[in-house]
From TrEMBL:
Catalytic center residues: 67, 100
Entry keywords, A to Z: Isomerase
Residues holding D-ribulose 5-phosphate: 10-11, 68-72, 101, 111, 134, 138
Family the entry assigns: Belongs to the LacAB/RpiB family.
NCBIfam families reported for this sequence: PRK05571.1 (NF004051), rpiB (TIGR01120), rpiB_lacA_lacB (TIGR00689)
Entry keyword annotation includes Transcription: no
Family annotation (InterPro entries): RpiB, RpiB_LacA_LacB, RpiB_LacA_LacB_sf
Species this protein is from: Edaphosphingomonas laterariae
UniProt key word Isomerase: yes
Record protein name field: Ribose-5-phosphate isomerase
Lineage: Bacteria, Pseudomonadati, Pseudomonadota, Alphaproteobacteria, Sphingomonadales
Pfam families tied to this protein: LacAB_rpiB
């Protein structure tokens, strides 16, 4: 069975959000569209925080965060210690975000990425498992900075 994927955006990415939500459903995923529902101006942190809480709580396995650049909403999502959001622009960065960082949210900028590239990023993100191994201790430190060591 496919994962539940949460998706949220701001007004600048509402069209890309709709396209990716439909594409995810075509791929067999259940999609939680967290908004917004219209292109009226909204504040991306509100939607980023809602998306982060949805993923961190386990209500969705992964998330997709979208705004004009992808930067603002990714910062908002990453405020939640239970989430690792990676801003990506190509399939390789999306794949590495999963392999090495165990990212559970992917962010993209609707004004910077085309639809086909966004689908490629999302496909790579969803298909790639976390490698674990030497990466696990690093990922553990992302959610618990107290475990980080003082650099030499």
């Amino acid at each position: 069975m496919a994962d539940i994927i949460a998706i949220a955006s701001d007004h600048a990415a509402i069209e890309l959000k709709a396209i990716l939500a439909d594409w995810l459903r075509e791929q067999g995923h259940e999609v939680l569209d967290l908004g917004p529902a219209t292109a009226d101006s909204v504040d991306y942190p509100d939607y980023g925080y809602k998306l982060a809480e949805t993923v961190a709580s386990g209500a969705a396995a992964k998330g997709v965060a979208l705004c004009g650049s992808g930067i603002g909403i990714s910062i908002a999502v990453n405020r939640n210690p239970g989430v690792r959001c990676a801003l990506v622009s190509d399939g390789l960065s999306a794949r590495l975000s999963r392999q090495h960082n165990d990212a559970n949210v992917v962010a993209m900028g609707a004004r910077l990425i085309g639809v086909d590239s966004a689908k490629d990023c999302l496909a790579a993100f969803l298909a790639t498992p976390f490698e674990g191994g030497r990466h696990q201790r690093r990922v553990d430190k992302l959610s618990n900075p107290a475990n980080a060591k003082e650099p030499a």
